[in-house]
Amino acid sequence: MSKIVQICTAVPPHRIDQASASKTVTQLFRNSGLDIDRLLPIFLNTEIENRYISAPIEWYEHNHDFATKNALFLETAIALSEKAVAQVCDQANIAPDEIDHVFMISTTGIATPSIDAHLLNRLSFKSGIRRTPIWGLGCAGGVAGLSRAHDWLKAYPSKLAFVISLELCSLTFISNDRTRSNFVATALFGDGCAAALLAGDQHPHRNGRAIRIEDTAAVTWPDSLDVMGWDINDAGLKVIFSQSIPKIVQASARPVMQDFLNAHSLCMSDIDYFLSHPGGAKVIAAYINALDLNERQVADMRCILRDFGNMSSVTVLFVLEHFMRSGQYHSGARILSAALGPGFSSEMLLARSC
After folding, report:
1. Rounded CA separation 150/143 (Å)
2. I want to staple 282 with a disulfide (CB 3.0 to 4.6 A). Which of 107, 185, 246, 342 is the partner?
3. What is the pTM of this model?
4. Would you place residue 244 in the very low, low, confident or very high pLDDT band (cuts 50, 70, 90)?
5. What are the chain's domains?
6. For residue 250, what pLDDT band results from cuts at 50, 70 and 90?
7. Do the beta carbons of residue 97 and residue 126 sit within 8 Å?
8. d(Cα 37, Cα 318) in Å, to the nearest integer?
9. 303 belongs to the catalytic site
10. CA–CA dist 289, 254 (Å, integer)
11. Per annotation, catalytic residue among 89, 139, 169, 193
12. Beta strands in the chain (DSSP E)
């Protein structure tokens, strides 16, 4: 097994509330042919109040080519990742050169060398550090990154690993893409970074509150490639975002998760906290209905969605950090984390606070 011993987060400096976002988007989509008056309630119905973005709001009112957006992605990604990792090292009282493996998760920009290689030069990671950049898992990437780190630490239980998740969703915005999917994305997505420190069972690290990962699982549904993802063109990463996602959650979540729990002789009533990627208010509602959850079980998800929006793969790490620092935390609580991503797929993680 392995345990999450510390999570720290970082966001860009530009905060935007939903009212300001709604006003800007109304102006941008005014001549799009969409029924703006019918779509505008989406901003209120998301239950999001604030988000953080990588440039001033005026920057998004103009067209930018992919090269310009990706250059800003790289600059911001390195800065936020460095900040989050440095905070973890400080709070966990470790040095960067004690880390044995870094798993770098991102899907909203392209970097080769990957972002973790840039961090080696800034944070004094040891030259022999193992590096595993993971691209393309979208919102599922946060849970997947924790799962892959857990797998590695089972094989090397005396080691330490970082999972760094970094998504700058706002930089994928294409100002002249006047589709409904792009409109919905402007109401949901924000930017953020999270770094999680994981320790193998034989590592002597002690750091108070922690989450022990017990098992992980994944499923990819066939013939579902068009549910979410990117259509990559000259302007950048054009969002593919199906309206059917809440319905898929409602229909498919319970059997998949119950199969996962059955392997441990558990059922949903044994789960104390559902600390998952919130997606949006409709996705949370679908999970509640499908899994018979109560509001206490999803409270951390709602808090993060309200204050930061949907940050793709990063969001679940914000949710886990919120729980670890909250008054709800208590030793022995059973935790189920899940996230949906392109494929169309689900990543799942079973854990217990300790």
Report:
1. 10
2. 246
3. 0.94
4. low
5. 2-200 (3.40.47.10), 211-353 (3.40.47.10)
6. low
7. yes
8. 33
9. no
10. 10
11. 139
12. 2-10, 14-17, 50-53, 101-106, 130-135, 160-168, 191-200, 211-220, 228-233, 236-241, 273-274, 334-341, 345-353
